[in-house]
Design brief:
Keywords: Membrane, Transmembrane, Transmembrane helix
GO cellular component, one term: membrane
Number of helices: 3
Shape: rod-shaped
InterPro entries: CD7, Ig-like_dom_sf, Ig-like_fold
Helix content: 25-40%
GO molecular function: signaling receptor activity
Order of helices and strands: HEEEEEEEEEEEHH
């Protein structure tokens, strides 16, 4: 007799387990979503802050009658910053971690009594580079259905602290750029000035080169008659010269 279980029997529990897990995931999904919507935190990030500056974190919840509020740092092994005990929606005892003592203040909402529940503003002051972290709020309340204490975490606020003031760094870069622009402007002005002077001189030289003064014809004619070379002086026509041998004889050939 074959005692090997059938495929149907083997597949039965597997399908039942899959269906059970699927139903459980569908059941827990809206529960997790509703719990995540019951706690909130703002802002999501505070970046580019200078040393000794301050930051504010707003923690709020709609959970009924929470018993306490934690502020924790996620990047430093979930270090505790403070614990705030709450009784009847009022602030009770405040416990602050040694590293933040004297640097954390708590301010409750003024209209907290008329709201469904709680909202607190936590102010962190005198922040240093070592305080760079992701700070998240963790609410503690008593679950009456399960009879246990439950904690619900918010997403968190990332605070980045730098050693130098980014505004001063940008201002220094802006000052350098302004100096560079001033130097370039003066250089361009000097170049344009010398180009203008060179063009003006070239124009004056060209005009002087093509200019020809008018001559005085009368003065030239006068000097021509005054300074006549001896070899160019006019001589008498030989036809009109009287022979020296016979001064009393007149030759009329040339006249006739």
């Amino acid at each position: 007799m074959d005692n090997k279980p059938s495929d149907k029997k083997q597949g039965g529990p597997r399908w039942h387990s899959c269906l059970h897990n699927n139903n459980m995931s569908k059941t827990w999904a809206p529960v997790y979503l509703s719990l995540s919507l019951q706690v909130s935190q703002s802002p999501s990030a505070v970046s580019l802050m200078k040393v000794n500056s301050s930051a504010e974190i707003l923690c709020s919840t709609s959970l009924p009658d929470p018993t306490g509020l934690y502020l924790m740092g996620r990047f430093h092994d979930n270090r505790d910053v403070l614990y705030l005990s709450i009784a009847d929606r009022a602030v009770g005892k405040i416990t602050i971690h040694n590293g933040f003592r004297g640097r954390v203040t708590v301010q409750p909402d003024q209209d907290q009594e008329v709201k469904r529940c709680c909202e607190f503003t936590l102010r962190l002051s005198q922040l240093g580079v070592e305080d760079t972290d992701s700070y998240y709020c963790s609410w503690r309340y008593y679950d009456t259905k399960r009879k246990v204490l439950v904690q619900r975490h918010s997403n968190g606020t990332i605070i980045i602290v730098r050693e130098r003031d980014p505004e001063k760094g940008c201002g220094g870069g802006q000052t350098i750029m302004e100096l560079i622009l001033i130097v370039l402007s003066w250089t361009a002005f000097i170049v344009i000035f010398f180009l203008f002077i060179g063009a003006l001189m070239w124009r004056c030289t060209r005009t002087k080169k093509h200019y020809t003064p008018a001559r005085d014809n009368r003065r030239h004619h006068h000097h021509h008659h005054q300074h006549v070379c001896p070899q160019h002086r006019p001589t008498a026509d030989p036809q009109f010269i009287h022979p020296s041998s016979s001064p009393g004889h007149v030759d009329f050939k040339g006249i006739l």
